[in-house]
């Protein structure tokens, strides 16, 4: 039986491979960009608000900060307590064009020892969790190997 690939959150990302993008929204009045997407009203306190349109965000940015998760988070975090905990690395990335900071896991195998502030990373499709029926998809940040 083949498992379905399902985004862990609807509407936050789209596409595959080179076409994979995070989806934010942009205020038609003040051009502020939001991620996670804001669909109700502009969060810019100096803006009276406008229509919010969906926009794909840049695929590249630079490491703003990072850490790792050395312990199993409590519920509702989904993990199998029967399996040993595998730490993951979390990166806060400042997108080059939007100047927004977006959190995400690093690609598997990347540890905090591999990262420095200012290092360039790119967005790639990733897997957050798998069960018998579903592969839950997300985004990961992968170092490009280029220095800022
Ligand atoms: Zn606005």
Automatic annotation (TrEMBL):
InterPro entries, per database record: ChsH2_C, ChsH2_Znr, NA-bd_OB-fold, Thioester_dehydratase-like
One Pfam short name: zf-ChsH2
Residue ranges occupied by any ChsH2 rubredoxin-like zinc ribbon domain in the UniProt entry: 21-53
Domain ChsH2 C-terminal OB-fold: 54-124
Domain of life from the UniProt record: Bacteria
Annotated protein name in UniProt: Zinc ribbon domain-containing protein
Organism: Streptomyces coacervatus
